[in-house]
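G., the chain you wanted modeled:
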Amino acid sequence: MQRVPYQQMRDEFSRVLLKMDFSKERAELCGRLFADASRDGVYTHGLNRFPRFVKYIKEGYLNIHAVPELAEASGALERWDGNSGPGNLNAYFCMDRAIQLARKHVIGCVALRNTHHWMRPGNYGLQAADAGCIGICWTNTIPNMPAWGGKEPKLGNNPIVLAVPRAEGPLLLDMAVSMFSYGKLESYALHDQMLPVDGGFDADGNLTKDPKAVIQNQQPLPIGYWKGAGLSLLLDLVAMALSGGKSAFQVGTMEVEMDLSQVFIAFDLSKLSGNDLILRSIEESLADLHSSTPVREGLKVSYPGERMLATRKENMAKGVPVEPGIWEKVLQM
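Predicted structure as tokens:
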């Protein structure tokens, strides 16, 4: 396994972005968000996604100089237009704005339209947690998942994030509403590996563990079957309604995945009475969870985000694992 130091990865991403005419500040933040994804083990949305990001810039689908523009404000809720700017920079800005609103109103909600893929969703949940806030955010996508009982891709696998702050490290749930995100499917396919459980349907409508078949047919399995399909639809329509932007159906009419709708919510725990009790209750709940008897010897029951923290610690000490071919491609950019 090839590993590279985290700081070197950040520097290489920033170097490439500076050569593409990003400002220094935006290149460094954008590069850090990509590097943070790989540092925390989300390689599919870190290094592995970076070449596609650069490709979209070169093809003119993404305006690197565009910044979010306030479209409407009403108390704790704001609507912003992303103006087809870099998705991770737009998302970082909007979660920061949601945190600012939460400082004033306890809750802050920012809805964003006309933006690009936000790369690793968990970055923005961690951003809220690091500020002492509960963070919730989600996005729609192109149609890439079937409606329950259907064959064509009609729904997005619309990722959703929930994060809770704590001194020992945040809780972080970062998931698509399909059994496996497309990034994870591509990772299994790249290594010619089968999925550990059924992840979608083949051309004949049968459940399969073959990631290549799922990708080819655009038939990933919704989490919870019909429940995941329903959750996908409602996340999509709520993001569209709050932002005044496009639904997954409308995004699907574009040349590439762009003009997405997203929602960012922050709750400032410091503004609530009994904050110490809240934090103590969280720790008691996690201790009870850890007391679970594993179903098999050698397994450990963990909370969402716990393994991420362990991966981060290892990767900061030993270097971040990279796909040699993709890393070399970045070095040559």
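The longest strand covers residues 107-115.

Shout if anything looks off.
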